[in-house]
Every structure is written in structure tokens, then in C-alpha cells.
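PROTEIN DESIGN WORKSHEET
SECTION A - STRUCTURE
LENGTH: 309
C-ALPHA CELLS:
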């Protein structure tokens, strides 16, 4: 809990600043609109957290989000009847990509940075080959309701975010969370104590792939079809996780803090937009955050950072 407090303080300060600049944010509709917009990144950060806390990386989630949206538009092509089986297919694709990442990383001993970077390029190339840079098809209204629609006064994306967040917290409080932490902290010691390290890390990658699938569904519904919809999201997710105090190298950090880091990052970007600061500056901000957070982690847990390099 102590490691969660700093990022919650930062988040509270950013939300207060947003309320000062834009009083509409204080109204329920304004606040829910912010949460709705942040939901895909928060879900991605939760998935990325599982991988990072296990001592690995997942750079493929941004391109996977793009694949999910492009495939959905092509297969549904405006047909309402195709919505549900396509949704199931998208979830299966996310799990499959995560499974492949995990198997290659653990069984073939390929560093996860290289594995997921390769997967990023594979998925990006596949999207371009299939679409020629211009996605075809259209999403159905039943599909788009998850990103744009409401369940009563609450957006569907907020409801889905709450469910994902609750599931993530429960997973980390269960035996799986203990095994994941032990694996990231010291995989050799974890293996000697009976933890199936490879299986634990593979499951972490699968969870990251599933999170990317859900984020893609929400983003497709909210923003529509684009071949660039997931561009850069992998770095935003990693930035959010390290901003939440999760140590690169594994074994340290809270999933709640990681999700709070995603909210903080989204709030910071929104605040910059309110002040009219150019969007490309977001990449500079992310770079500064990553360097500062890793430097802080190196000072506090030097052995963990050395283990990740």
C-alpha cells in the first residue's frame, strides 16, 4: 500500500489541476468521460503489469490492438449478426499472440524484448499487407456500443474497466500473484520452491494479450477503424506501469499503482491538451517519465534493474 500512495497523490494533483482548468470535469458526466477515454490505456497497463512484474516486457500490445480493430472491421463489415463471433475471435487472437510470446520467451530462451519486438513487426507487417495501409470494412453498432455506448448513466467502457481492474486485483491476491511476484523477484529461487516459472510467465503474456484484445475492442468502438489506432500504445502502457512505481526487472509493484499510473498519464496528456500544448510532446513526456522512473528504481532496487538488463 505504501508504494501505491505516491502515484495516488500525483493522480489527485493532476485531477485537481484539470478541474481548475475545466470546471466541467467536476461534474459526473465530465469525470466519466475522462474515465471512458482512459479505460483502454488502463486495461493495457494492467496487462503490461503482469508481464513486467514477472521480469519480462511486452512490446507487441500496440500492434495487437491495431490488428484487433482491423480484423474486426474486415470480418464484421457492418453486419450486426457477425458481431458476437468476431468478438470471441478477437479474444482468441489476443490470447494466442500472448501464448506465442510466452512460449518463445520461456521455451526458446529468447529475451522478451526481442520476442515481442519481433511480434510487433510481424503484426504491423501483416496489417499493412492485408489492408495496404487503408483498412476496409466497417464495425457494427453492436460492436461500437462497448466503446461509445452507456449502461444507464455509466459508459460501457467504464463498466468493463471496473470488471478488469477487479479481476486483476483478485489475481494478484491469489496464489498466482504470489507465484508471479516470486518469479519476477528471483526465478531460480522460485523454481526451487516449486513455482513453475515458465508456466507463470506464459500466463502473464496471455493476460497481456487478452488485455490488448479488450483495449482494442474499446478503442475500435470509441475511435473507429484506423491502421494507426494502436501506434505507440506499447510505450504508453510501459510508461504508465513504471510511473506507478513498478520496478523494471520484476518482483516489485502493485497492479493498482500501475493502473493509477495509466490514469495519471492520461490526465497529464489531457491537461497538456487543455493548455494547447502540441500532441507530439507526449512522446517527450513519456521518455522523461521512463528515464526518471527507472533511475528512481535503480537507486532503490539496484539489483532488480541489473537483473533486467
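SECTION B - SEQUENCE
RESIDUE ASSIGNMENT:
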Amino acid at each position: 500500500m505504501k508504494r501505491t500512495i505516491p502515484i495516488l497523490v500525483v493522480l489527485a494533483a493532476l485531477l485537481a489541476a484539470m478541474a481548475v482548468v475545466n470546471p466541467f470535469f467536476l461534474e459526473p458526466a465530465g469525470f466519466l468521460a475522462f474515465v471512458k477515454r482512459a479505460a483502454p490505456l488502463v486495461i493495457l497497463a494492467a496487462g503490461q503489469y503482469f508481464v513486467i512484474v514477472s521480469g519480462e516486457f511486452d512490446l507487441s500490445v500496440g500492434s495487437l490492438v491495431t490488428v484487433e480493430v482491423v480484423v474486426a472491421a474486415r470480418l464484421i463489415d457492418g453486419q450486426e449478426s457477425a458481431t458476437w463471433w468476431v468478438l470471441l475471435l478477437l479474444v482468441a487472437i489476443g490470447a494466442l499472440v500472448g501464448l506465442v510470446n510466452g512460449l518463445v520467451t520461456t521455451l526458446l530462451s529468447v529475451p522478451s524484448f526481442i520476442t515481442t519486438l519481433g511480434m510487433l513487426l510481424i503484426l504491423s507487417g501483416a496489417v499493412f499487407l492485408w489492408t495496404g495501409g487503408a483498412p476496409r470494412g466497417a464495425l457494427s453498432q453492436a460492436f461500437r456500443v462497448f466503446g461509445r455506448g452507456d449502461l444507464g448513466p455509466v459508459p460501457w467502457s467504464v463498466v468493463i474497466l471496473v470488471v478488469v481492474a477487479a479481476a486483476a486485483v483478485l489475481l494478484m491476491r491469489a496464489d498466482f500473484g504470489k507465484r508471479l511476484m516470486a518469479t519476477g523477484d528471483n526465478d531460480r529461487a522460485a523454481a526451487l520452491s516449486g513455482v513453475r516459472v515458465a508456466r507463470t510467465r506464459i500466463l502473464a503474456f496471455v493476460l497481456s494479450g487478452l488485455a490488448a484484445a479488450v483495449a482494442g475492442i474499446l478503442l475500435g468502438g470509441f475511435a473507429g477503424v484506423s491502421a494507426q489506432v494502436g501506434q505507440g500504445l506499447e510505450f504508453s502502457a510501459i510508461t504508465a506501469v513504471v510511473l506507478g512505481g513498478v520496478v523494471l526487472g520484476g518482483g516489485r509493484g502493485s497492479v493498482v499503482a500501475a493502473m493509477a499510473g495509466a490514469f495519471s498519464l492520461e490526465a497529464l496528456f489531457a491537461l497538456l491538451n487543455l493548455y494547447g500544448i502540441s500532441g507530439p510532446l507526449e512522446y517527450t513526456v513519456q521518455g522523461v517519465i521512463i528515464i526518471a522512473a527507472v533511475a528512481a528504481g535503480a537507486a532503490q532496487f539496484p539489483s532488480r534493474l541489473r537483473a533486467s538488463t
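SECTION C - NOTES
The radius of gyration is 19 Å.
The longest strand covers residues 150-151.
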